[in-house]
Amino acid sequence: MLVLGIETSCDDTAAGVVRDGAEVLSSVVSSQDNVHGQFGGVVPEIASRGHLENIVGVVHRALEGAACSIGDMDLISVTAGPGLIGSLLVGLSFAKGAAFLTGLPLVPVDHVQGHLATLDLAGGTPYPSVALVVSGGHTTLFHMSSPDDIGIIGTTLDDAAGEALDKAAKMLGLGYPGGPAIETASRDGDPASLQLPRPLSGTDRLEFSFSGLKTALFTYLGRHGYLDTTGEGRARLPLSTSDLAASFQQAVIDVLVEKCIGAVRLHRVNHLIVVGGVARNAALRERMSRVGVESGFEVHFPPPSYCTDNAAMIAALGFRKRAEAGTEIMDINAYSTKALKRGKGPGNRD
Ligand code: KG4
Ligand code: ZN
Question: Fewer CB within 10 A of the terminal residue: the chain, N end or C end?
Answer without folding.
Answer: C
